Amino acid sequence: MSKTVIIIISLLVLLLISGVAIARYKGFCSNSEARIGWMAERLDKHLELSDNQRVHLDKFRVEIISMAETLRSDREMYANEAADLLNQSSLDRERAHTLLMQKQAQLASISSDFIDAFADFSDNLEQHQRDKLQSMILHHKAHRHCGPGCNSPTKLNQE
Questions:
Q1: 3-state secondary structure of 121
Q2: Nearest CA-CA partner of 59 in 122, 105, 106
Q3: I want to staple 146 with a disulfide (CB 3.0 to 4.6 A). Which of 13, 87, 141, 150 is the partner?
């Protein structure tokens, strides 16, 4: 192999390794608790929160982690139930409906705690902080993995 090919391959490997290291450092490859913690730190930094506001943000962070753990613990059970339904010669529609209703009830009970925790956090923000939070949310929505406008009704109808 020529020296040029070896240098190019070495640079590509170095870039790949550094990209993985940066992703891990930023929290993109971490578990959900670490990603939620990273997001809470980011909110604290960008919104310049007071001590009281940090307390409400931490309660909200704990609620999100609790909700994620609850959903994660039931995920395997629901996957096994769905696999069992597909194992039969015909789908047991009543059992499928019951599973769906159970999941919806679980989400409804979790969502009220989530909404309360978010409301407690957002209600304690000053108006300029609320405006900044809103712009952060809109920016995130516009720059998701699929790109701006990928969830627009016209784009969805074309697919």
A1: helix
A2: 122
A3: 150
Amino acid at 84: D
Other beta carbons less than 10 A from residue 88's beta carbon:
9
Give the pLDDT confidence score for residue 21 in this predicted structure.
Answer: 65
Non-local CB neighbours of 123 within 8 Å, separated by 6+ positions: none
Instruction: Find tokens 């309360």 and name the residue.
Output: 116
145 CB-near residues (< 8 Å, 6+ apart):
none
Threshold 0.70, pTM exceeds: no
Phi, psi torsion values for 124, nearest 5 degrees: -95, 5
Tokens of 76: 């395997």
| Residue 158 pLDDT class (50, 70, 90 cuts) | very low
Cβ atoms of residues 76 and 44 within 8 Å: no
Helices (H) and strands (E) in the chain, counts: 6, 0
Average pLDDT, integer, range 10-29: 67
Task: Tell the burial category of 133 from Cβ atoms under 10 Å away from its Cβ (0-12, 13-18, 19+).
Answer: middle
Angle among Cα 149, 155, 156 to the nearest 5 degrees reads: 115
